[in-house]
C-alpha cells in the first residue's frame, strides 16, 4: 500500500457552525457511501449567521485547523455563512488540503433552473453578497435575497407548533416569491422545512439547495477510499453533545448515537 | 479625596451574552443616574441560552474578568442564563468585587405577587432549575416553566411581521397560562414584548421581570459615586458593533451612538 492509498483512506472533514451542516453530510454520504467522514459542529459559538465576517473567518480557520490535525484528505465548509465569507481564507491557510464550499455548488444548482432566483439565507450571507455574485456569474439576471434569521432558530426547535412554522415560513416566502422561478435555500438549516415550503409554494417555484451539488462536486474531485465496506462517521461538537444528538438527528435523517465534545 | 471615594467613582460593570441585558442597564441607569456603567455584550458567542452550563460558566468568567481589568466597583450579571448557571463561579473567582445576578431579584419580584408563577426563559435557564428553586424558597407553591428559544431570535429581529410576533408569543403563552397568576420573564430579551404579552394575557396574570428589582438591589448595596452630574455609559461588544447599535437601541430604549469592539 503506497502513500497515496493511505491518504485516500483518510476521512473527509466537514464543518459547520452547528447541526445544519448535517444536511450536507447526509448528501455527502449518499454520494460517497464508502468514505469516512469527520463532522465538526461549532455548537459553542453558533449561530454564525448574525456575526461579522471577521469573526466568522476566525472561527472557520480554527475549525478547519482542528480537522487538519485529524488528518482529513479534504474539507467541506458545510456552513453557508462560512462558505460565503471564509472560503478563500481557509483555502489560503491550508494549501495542501482540498477545501470545498457550498455557495458555488448552490448557485450552480439554482442557475440550472434559470429565471429569477429567490435566495433565503442568514443575515450575514445575504449581506456579504457571495451568492448573489455567484448567481450573476452564472448568467442569472435577477436575484431577490432575503435574510431569514428566525428560520435558523425554528429549525433548532422541533417542538414549535406546526402553525407557527407555517406562519414564519409563509411570512418569509410572501416577501420573496411574487416573481421568482427558483427558490435557493442558502442556509443548511433550511432543507428541514422543504415539505412545508413546497406546500406553500404550490408549484410556483422550484426549490433547490446546495447539498446535492456540493456532494457531486466533492465526489468528482477526491481520490476515493480503497475499500468496499461502508465508511464510518465521527461526530464532534464544541458544546452540548446531548442536544446535538437529539436535534441533529432531524438534520442527518437518522438517529445519532455518539457525539464527542472537543475544543477548537 | 481618599481611596474609598476613588473606588466609588469607578463604573459598575454589566455583562450579558449580547444585547438583551441592555433592558437591565436601562433599569440600572434609571435607579442610579449618577453612576458610570460599562456594559459588555458577548455578541461573538451569543446566545448562551442553548449552551451547556460548563460553556456558559467559562464565557461568564472571561467576561467578568474583562470587566475587572477595567476597574469596575461591582458586576451585574445581566444575562439570566449566566446568572442561573455561573453566578457562584463568578463570585468565587472575583471575591473583591460585589457580583449581582438577576435570578434572585426576579424570583423576589414574582413571589411578591404570589399564586402560581409561570416562567418563560431560555432552554438552559429552565433546565438548570435556578429560578424554580429560588421561587420555591420564597414560598411559591407552584411553578410552570417553559423554554421559549424562538423569542430570543424574535427579539433580535425587529423586522419580523407583527402577526408572526403575535403567533409565537401566543403559542408560548397558551401552554403556560391556564392557571398562572404571575408571568415571570426569565430572559432579558423578553421585556421588549411586554406590550404584546399583556395584550394577549388580557389581565389574567401580572407580568414581572428582573430588571427593576435587580436595579433596586444594586442601588442599595453599592457605595455611590461622589458627583452630582449624570454618569456615562460605555458599551463594549465582542462582535458586530453596527448590529449592536441598530438592534440594541430597542433594548436600551434610546439611540446608541458608539460601541467599541473588544476581545475577551
Descriptive overview:
2 copies of one chain form a homodimer. Chain A is α/β, with parallel strands linked by helices. Chain A folds into 2 domains: 3-101 and 213-261, 3-Layer(aba) Sandwich (Rossmann fold), CATH 3.40.50; 104-210, Rossmann fold. Helices cover 47% and strands 16% of the residues of chain A. Chain A contains 12 helices and 10 strands. Chain A has helices at residues 3-8, 22-31, 53-69, 80-93, 103-113, 123-128, 130-137, 149-155, 162-176, 194-201, 211-221, 241-252, and strands at residues 12-16, 37-41, 74-77, 98-100, 117-121, 143-147, 182-185, 206-209, 233-237, 260-261. In chain A, the strands form 2 sheets. The first copy, chain A, has a 6-stranded parallel sheet with strand order 4-3-1-2-9-10, sandwiched between helices. In chain A, helix 10 links the parallel strand 7 and strand 8. In chain A, helix 2 crosses helix 12, helix 3 crosses helix 4 (80-93) and helix 5 (103-113) packs across helix 11. The longest helix of chain A has 17 residues, at 53-69. Chain A is globular and about 50 Å long. Chain A starts with a helix and ends with a strand. The model of chain A has no long low-confidence stretch (mean pLDDT 93). The interface between A and B is medium-sized, with 25 and 26 residues.
What is the CATH architecture term of the largest domain in chain A? 3-Layer(aba) Sandwich
What's the domain count of chain A? 2
Spatial shape of chain A: globular
Beta content of chain A: 15-25%
Number of strands of chain A: 10
Q: Supply Rg of chain A.
A: 18 Å
**Widest sheet, order of strands of chain A:** 4-3-1-2-9-10
Mean pLDDT of chain A comes to 93
Secondary-structure element pattern of chain A, one letter each: HEHEHEHEHEHHEHHEHEHEHE
CATH class of the largest domain in chain A: Alpha Beta
CATH fold descriptor of the largest domain in chain A: Rossmann fold
- Quaternary structure classification: homodimer
As a percent range, the share of helical residues of chain A equals 40-55%
- The count of helical stretches of chain A stands at 12
Q: Could you say which structural class the secondary elements and strand pairing of chain A correspond to?
A: alpha/beta
